[in-house]
Amino acid sequence: xxxxxxxxETVNNIAFIRLNRPDRLNALNQKMINxxxxxxxxxxxDESIGAxxxxxxxxxxxxxxxxxxxxxxxxxxxVHAFFRTSEVxxxxxxxxxxxxxxxxxxxxxxxxxxxxxxxxxxxxxxNALFGQPEIKIGVIPAGGGTQRLPRLVGIxxxxxxxxxxxxxxxxxxxxxxxxNKVTSVEQLLPEAKKMAQKFVERPAFALKMLKSxxxxxxxxxxxxxxxxxxxxxxxxxxxxDQKEGMSAFMEKRQAAFKGK
Length: 260
Description:
- By secondary structure, the protein is of the alpha/beta class.
- The chain contains eleven helices and nine strands.
- Helix 1 (30-45) runs parallel beside helix 3, helix 4 packs across helix 5 (145-153) and helix 5 (145-153) packs across helix 6.
């Protein structure tokens, strides 16, 4: 698949998506949003892909929305039409039926930060910066920053970041739980690949059920969420991988999962 604003390839059952608008600091414009949505649809349908890594380059992940493009929006209707497509794209990433990893070098600000928040896991290079600076230009985040960030780091810390608009570095992001791991710039992609490969080796349908149980359950009351978790657990007993996994455990051998 060929795109104008992203680079896409698949290696060893891992999909790699690289933001590729260096002249605009990888800012999210309508073209990139549409292409990201298209590639997510393709990945969802490709059973050979077991995990996804989204990254930028060694200098930056993404500088946010393309202000040059959105500055021309002159009515709530136009704003809604523009950001509705980004909302759909972020939701596709969040609910993709495979694990997603954001591998972040340099700034991940505004929409770039929200893109990382939509992923399951975030790995940051030492030069990474995370922030939602929208308040500094008179607006608020519109790609999930006010909702995903508090769910990830807690309401108090999220409000501080959102109210100030100031970025935090990788060490602080790790301390508050915004990122899972901090590495050197050189080790960022190797670490992301290592983690993704581990996910690829797990039973794919069980991972799909696990992600669904977490993502759906967090928006339910506890009793409903526990019931949903049990339904997901029960469904897995109809899969070949469940039988293979338990047999392999009893026979003290490595399981050979097929994603079925």
